[in-house]
Amino acid sequence: MISLRTMMMRGGTSSGVYLLKSDIDETGVDPDVLLSVILGSLNRAQIDRLGGDGATTSKVAIVGPSTRPDCDVDYLFAQVDLGTLWVDWNLTCGNLLAGVASFAIERGLVLKAHPATAVRVHVVNSGAAVTVSVGSGGVTGRSAPVELMFDNFCGGRTGKLFPTGRPVDHLGDVAITAIDAGVCAVIAEAREFGLTGGESPQQLNSDTRLLDRLERLRLRAAVAMGLGDSRGYVLPKVMLVSESHRADLRSRYFVPDGCNDGHAVAGAVCLATAAAVSDTVAGKLLGRPAGIRPLLLEDATGTVSVDINRIGSGDLKIGASVRSMARKLFDGYVFADMHREPCLIGDTAEAGVT
């Protein structure tokens, strides 16, 4: 039986498990196996687990002292596949990133400052560095507004902002922008698929013909982006964009085999970055120079504001800032029986379990 001090937090539109790297290392267990047990992989009933039943609720943030001199902490993200014993370490998650500063403060990795604590985070998966600022009043409370300031986040996976070398490509009769900005994504206009762009995620997810067409497009784009065969992988993501009456652009975000209710933080930054380049699919739809003011993006749950600015010469020298939130849900211990399914006890009333 292995016990690990564990925190669960909501970050942006996701929730996940936060662990100290040192605690994982001390177990001596392969992290792929350990995380699969903690989140309840292969348990079809999903009753003894910390993972949810979807991609946005089966995530892990592993945090420790930074291995880089210009950062305060390292953040390693893991996406756990609940249907197998496989853990994907090749992704990033801006939503869980929103909770890293609060977690680091509570675990004593950084000192709390007033009126806000700015934590420089090394995103290990991509090599990016992000400044996460959290108000001191919200660190130990139920929720905290968080500002995420990204720099040098473009080309983290492929080395290029536009992996194909072009801002627009045509795959069959569909114009796309293949982009690597915080996350690798394929952006196309919703009308290319006979959609208005205002359809609900439920409507889109019930259209199996649409989902099949998007998957075939995604796989072709992945090869063109140098990502290889992406069957079974969540990258690249797909965004279908359209005009908005409430914001600058409207988007539906696929993760990738179904439409998510809202944008992931990285997805919103990626789309805003694409819109900042006038000859991309998003830039042409926007129809005005981006960067004059923050870009307001509409998804199925509301809007998110992203500020894009160039911090130097070259396509990769782009900065972005976005506001998110983090909420502590649980702080306690997870008990992982490596021969049986895990169970959970908690030491905070807020978790609602005993």
CATH homology group of the largest domain: Diaminopimelate Epimerase, Chain A, domain 1
Name the shape in a single word. globular
- Spatial separation of the terminal alpha carbons: 19 Å
Q: What order do the strands of the largest sheet run in, or round the barrel if closed? A: 1-2-3-4-6-7-8-16
Number of domains: 2
| Name of the top-level CATH class of the largest domain | Alpha Beta
Order of helices and strands: EEHHEEEHHEEEEEEHHEEHHEEEE
| CATH architecture assignment name of the largest domain | Roll
Instruction: Name the helicity range.
Output: 10-25%
What fold name goes in the CATH topology slot of the largest domain?
Answer: Diaminopimelate Epimerase, Chain A, domain 1
What does this structure look like?
Pfam families: PrpF. GO terms for molecular function: isomerase activity. InterPro entries: PrpF-like. Keywords: Isomerase. With about 350 residues, the chain is α+β, with helices and mostly antiparallel strands. The protein folds into two domains: about 1-150 and about 325-350, Diaminopimelate Epimerase, Chain A, domain 1 (Roll), CATH 3.10.310.10; about 170-305, Diaminopimelate Epimerase, Chain A, domain 1 (Roll), CATH 3.10.310.10. It is about 20% helix and about 35% strand. The chain is built from eight helices and 17 strands. The protein has helices at about 20-25, 30-40, 95, 100-105, 200-205, 210-225, 265-275, 280-285; strands spanning about 1-10, 15-20, 60-65, 75-80, 85-90, 115-125, 130-135, 145-150, 170, 175-180, 185-190, 235-240, 250-255, 295-300, 300-310, 320-335, 345. An eight-stranded mixed beta barrel has the order 1-2-3-4-6-7-8-16, surrounded by four helices. It starts with a strand and ends in an 8-residue tail after the last strand.
